[in-house]
Amino acid sequence: MIPVIALVGRPNVGKSTLFNRLTRSRDALVADLPGLTRDRQYGHAKIEGRPFIIIDTGGITGGEVGIDGYMAEQSKLAVQEADIVLFLLDARAGLTAVDENLARELRTFGKPVHLVVNKIDGINAEAAIADFYALGFSSVNPIAAGHGRGVNVLAEEVLLPLASDEALEEAERERTKHPKIAIVGRPNVGKSTLVNRMLGEERVVVFDMPGTTRDSIYIDMERREKPYTIIDTAGVRRRGKVRETVEKFSVLKTLQAIEDANVVIMVFDAREGITEQDLSLLRFVMEAGRSLVISINKWDGMTAEQREAVKSEVNRRMVFADFARMHFISALHGSGVGDLFDSVDEAFNSANVEMSASKLTRELEIAVAKHPPPTVKGFRSKLRYAHPGGHNPPRIVIHGNRTTKLPESYQRYLIKHFIKVLNIVGTPIKLELKEGK
Ligand code: GDP
Ligand code: GDP
């Protein structure tokens, strides 16, 4: 499972600054989903190719966070969800009574706690961190989140050991086997109705439904003699039975399911339109590099005008996900649900597309011959050859000179070319630009 890191500490110690540095985003990818307080933000970080989920606590409203040494409810929830805690402190303010109370409370959770002493820029770091050893934690890490100093060391020494190479490789291997579909979306968009429909598709054999209430439920099934695993984040409710109380929506559960899947079916509610929360979740799917199938649900009983309005909104606001197939469905009545499997298959096959160095290099040459890279400040990048870098999503490694100077627009042009010649649908592809040789 993807490691989960909670950032806690008094207001203004620099939690959000560190969060933004680790997730390399200016705003949280997933913020403010209904069902939780607006004070917990979830972000996706990649450290040396390994994925992490970072939870920032507080920093949005600030006021009610960390008051008088009592951890705010949302900080507690974040710590409970996390594998490790980064406890942030302000080197300039020195050790405060609030910090001491927080330290005491943090110990009660039994989670590994690492001190992160922030704002060491322009001061004597050694002297500044000395105080904090008094809190009794052995891992004390000086950083300047604002400038980035120490952040790489922190990432490498504290975070990276949580992600073993074996686990990463095992997860990648698992993802190439058969479609593992995460059904995600905001509460009430129709996820569980859709899961039930998908299971109710003809000739589906459901093998087992393990899982606890806390975790997503993994359902192995077969359709037209092909195996699938459905990751049900909503909690499946058997058909014909009385509905059970709707489980509390959990952002973490959703994000973990996305990470663990190879194809995500993201469900939208046509009647609600596209909300900010939908877009945050969609961006997380993109960050994770997952294949994507979009399903706009509750298409039944809508007028032609309403449908047009939804379509135009979707086209306008979701251009950044235009690689994905889009389905307008009714989970309730079942219309369009069978077709989802076709798009899932297509996206899964695209994510695992066979690529060879010779084909990629040939296509690179063709693309460059058609449109050479533009000159930037009098120089032109020289792209020499390409080879495959992995699957889920497909990665193409390009070697040459001044490749790092290649403009974004030209990279997009190359991506478009590869997508076309490799017949890729429903999955993003990533370029890795390498200098020299
Ligand atoms: P949060 O409330 O814990 O999330 O804190 P913020 O990330 O919002 O940061 C609080 C203030 O500290 C902001 O004004 C930041 O610019 C500043 N800050 C954050 N990191 C550093 C740092 O490394 N050095 C200095 N000097 N200031 C920082
Ligand atoms: P979840 O929270 O995302 O799992 O959503 P549910 O599957 O529990 O559905 C929420 C509500 O929307 C329920 O009342 C469903 O009956 C209703 N619903 C789900 N799919 C459809 C649909 O395609 N059309 C209509 N009209 N209602 C739907």
TrEMBL record:
The gene is der. One of its GO terms (biological process) is ribosome biogenesis. GTP 1 binds at residues 9-16, 56-60, 118-121. Residues 3-166, 179-352 form the EngA-type G domain. The keyword GTP-binding applies. GTPase that plays an essential role in the late steps of ribosome biogenesis. GTP 2 binds at residues 185-192, 232-236, 297-300. GO terms for molecular function: GTP binding; hydrolase activity; ribosome binding. It comes from the Bacteria. Associates with the 50S ribosomal subunit. InterPro entries: G_ENGA, GTP-bd, GTPase_Der, KH_dom-like, KH_dom-like_a/b, P-loop_NTPase, Small_GTP-bd. Keywords: GTP-binding, Hydrolase, Nucleotide-binding, Repeat, Ribosome biogenesis. This is GTPase Der. It comes from Pleionea litopenaei. Belongs to the TRAFAC class TrmE-Era-EngA-EngB-Septin-like GTPase superfamily. EngA (Der) GTPase family.
